[in-house]
Amino acid sequence: MSFQNPVFIPGPTNMPESLRKAVDMPTIDHRSPLFAEILHPALAGVKQVLQSKTAEIFIFPSTGTGGWETALTNTLSPGDRVLVARNGMFSARWIDMCERHGLVVEVVETAWGTGIPAARFQEVLHGDTAHSIKAVLATHNETATGVKSDIAAVRRAIDTESHPAMLFVDGVSSIASMDFRMEDWGVDIAVAGSQKGFMLPAGLAILGFSPKAIAATETATLPRTFFDIRDMAKGYANNGFPYTPPVGLLNGLKMSCDMLLGEGLEQVFARHARIANGVRAAVSAWGLELCARAPELYSDTVSAIKTPEGFDATDIVAHAAAKYGVAFGVGLGEVAGKVFRIGHLGSLTDVMMLSGLATAEMCMVDLDLDVTLGSGVAAAQEIYRQSAKTGE
Questions:
Q1: Bond from prior residue into 12 cis (ω within 30 degrees of 0)
Q2: For residue 370, what pLDDT band results from cuts at 50, 70 and 90?
């Protein structure tokens, strides 16, 4: 691999030099007033990125997986029922976590390449007259398949049945890159990580809790220590953490939020949509298809690209790394060997994406796939040129 080339994996993403320098800072006393000048702006910035006015923000030294454990253990009790669709690798991992914590999981099996079936959720909730389902879990952007689900539709399904279940959303590969409206969509807990849309190294679990989720912490009995948001809230009130904080990462998060909000969230979302449209145009020009089965499901942060039957898609990823020093994502779970993934999130531009598409083309031609060199790049160039003309 080459440090000079950008990565095209679905995370960790490319880091702007200014953020890398923000993380690389001298040691400070994390009990000094200086730390408060890092902590509180970071919390406020995340709240704005989540587009919420009422959420409480919690940041833990962890990853998205730790964020999900935070969500579950702070709000639920052993034996509680949760509702979730299994439509990809990451929703499957959250199901496994729920089962390990002694929760009763109502799984709606869903084909990989499709989104969360809100109508089916509504049917299950309609039948839950005792309101034993305490939470509905939803993966906003399934990173393994490049599928975006309609979170607003899931909330409507809950509300239509006047069901009191909370809505927990995995936004790890969507938040800070795709439109995410915690308040408008009625999300009770949103989970993100530092290494994707926030353009930082892995190491922070980033969560937003609604007032309803905060209230649930008072009756939840699943064990929690490191991830106890009550301890964290007390730490924040005293301008600190309940334990040693990752100061450099928090300093990076503060600057990351400044960058995102400075660009403007609508512009951030539009940039990702434009870059994704170019990738999709390239895939079509190659004569290939996406794993996502319909345009309304297409993710603006990652494309999982199907290769012809009998061809091992992992060969493209391995060849790109070995010959050209460029990283793409392999297929995971049920689609391992059937797709390769191009990540187009975080710190990325049209010009950077063209280099990734050119590399993917060279790899496919090297491996004797029926792809015309330059076809995908040209298709993406037209998308980007037209966008440049219209200013979109």
A1: yes
A2: very high
Residue bearing tokens 């253990």: 73
- How far apart CA 57 and CA 202 sit, in angstroms, is 18
Q: How far, in Å, CA of 23 to CA of 383, rounded?
A: 35
CA 177 to chain centre: 8
Please tell me the distance from the alpha carbon of residue 83 to that of residue 151, in angstroms, as a whole number: 14
- DSSP-derived 3-state class of residue 208: strand
CA quadruple 329, 333, 336, 338: dihedral sign: negative
Q: Rounded to whole angstroms, how far apart are CA atoms 271 and 193?
A: 20
The answer to whether position 131 is within a domain reads yes
**Residue 33 CB burial class (10 angstroms; 0-12, 13-18, ≥19):** exposed
Domain that holds residue 280: 264-390
Q: Residue type at 252?
A: G
- Domains identified in the chain, total number: 2
Domain boundary among 208, 228, 262: 262
Residues 332, 246, single domain; the answer is: no
pLDDT in tens, 227-263: 999 999 999 999 999 999 999 999 999 999 999 999 9
What the block records as the tokens of 322 is 């070995």
The alpha-helical segments, DSSP class H, found in the chain are 17-23, 33-49, 64-75, 89-100, 118-127, 151-160, 211-216, 229-237, 247-263, 265-285, 314-319, 350-366, 375-390
Residue type, 189: I
C-alpha to C-alpha distance for 260 and 257, rounded to whole angstroms: 5
Q: How many helices (H) and strands (E) does the chain have?
A: 13, 13
Q: At what angle do helices 265-285 and 247-263 cross, to 10 degrees?
A: 80
Question: Is residue 2 scored above 80 in pLDDT?
Answer: no
Q: Establish how many alpha carbons lie within 13 A of residue 135's alpha carbon, considering only the half-sphere containing its beta carbon.
A: 30
Contact 209, 58 (CB under 8 A): yes
Q: What angle do CA 235, 239, 244 make, to 5 degrees?
A: 60
Are 118 and 165 in a shared domain? yes
Bridge-partner residues for 206, per DSSP?
59, 192
Give me 114's structure tokens. Answer: 């499709």
Q: Which amino acid is at 75?
A: T
Question: In the numeric block, which tokens belong to residue 160?
Answer: 């239509």
Q: What is the pTM of this model?
A: 0.96
